[in-house]
Amino acid sequence: MNHFDVAVLGGGISGLTAGFLLSHLGRSVAVFERSSDPGGCIRTWRRDGYLFELGPNTVLNNAREIDALIESCGMEGERISADRKAARRYVVKDGRLVALPSGPFSFLLTPLFNWRAKLRLLKEPFIAAAPEDAEESIAAFTRRRLGEEFLRYAVGPFVSGVYAGDPERLSVIHATRKIHALERRHGSLIRGAFAKKKGPAPSGGLLSFRGGLDALPRRMAAELGEGWRPEHDVLGVERRGTGYRVRFTAGGREEACSARVVISALSAGASGSILAEAAPAFARRSAEVSHADVAIVCMGFRRNQIRHPLDGFGLLAPDHEGRYPLGCLFPSAIFSGRAPEGAASLTAFVGGAMHGDRVGEDDESILSRTLEDLGGLLGIDGRPEIARVERWRPAIPQYVIGHGDLKAAAASSERDSPGLFLSGNTLLGISVADCVVHAHAVAARADAFLSEHFS
Predict the structure, then answer these.
(1) How far apart are CA 431 and CA 256, in angstroms?
(2) Which domains, ranges and CATH numbers included, belong to the chain?
(3) What is the pLDDT of residue 103?
(4) Is the pTM for the entire model greater than 0.70?
């Protein structure tokens, strides 16, 4: 039986980052992944000069851990930054595209919000914070502090774009913890924004890599060498003495290895069965996590087929507007090298927590309905010269009210099972940046545990 310092379950960005960092610290590591490719939902599709992301499209570079990881991978020369014009975001209102305001002057003039909603903002600094023990939905929090118009045309579309979720169900504490923290620390979102000396947009720029986002997980997998174990399907984890026994199948045979430390970066659904013995409290809660199913619609056009200038990041469609896609990105406007000369690319998102049934429609139906909807908004003539529909079922974990119970179960399981560490997008953030930051913290904790107990 093989023995490792660390067995990492799951080869998505969380598991790969933790395994890669620990390997660089001199630990013997095995990263087990059921599929053949590294990166989980980070997948890049290249065809006929186009480059599409089938999962996350960008990384928000808002933490030092992201720069540190890129540097450790030797990928500084491959990173690219988003075009400045990608800062513009559009929202659909009354059947047309309206740019989100970028500053105080454009806010006063924007037709997104009526004058009553704009004047209501003057009250926001004087609205009392919710009781500390209260857990509100994002919708309830927004209505209380900002009003219905801001829920409809700002916060609601943002939630749809990030979580593909329902703001009436998502927890403001856990799904948008930085926004909630402004109220807790400053008593007001506006006062908090001034205290941080920044506007509502997130700090840091958007980045990717010349060859696509999957270049990062592929580099980490290559650096791990024999420590990268694709097509290894983990069956279960059991406590054995001062360590753990990990059972898995590889090449059609059931095998096992021992490890002093186990880091689980599995999806919620997989955790429910695989960790049933090693972390029963977390496993039970994981099985209850809901997800939003999403279909990604990739489309490449000749540039003269689209009349819109595509001068921004993309568009979001508020649910009450009754549109078919949740939104659409303009990849060839965000990064260079995403479409051939004289061409443009669009990536639309369909389904989500409130329209998951649409993901089950056939490819042609999804593509045709998406084109019909976007055609009038962007001035599209004809069909794309290249297209693909990619489904994620399940896709994005939903941090609904009560998500704190899952986090508490994770903490309890780690206390009850020394040497077991829980990571992944189920717990502390769904973005690539969140996963990288959390993986750094988990790797540091795992290394400290090994030094304390096995030095």
Answers:
(1) 32
(2) 2-41+213-289+399-454 (3.50.50.60)
(3) 83
(4) yes
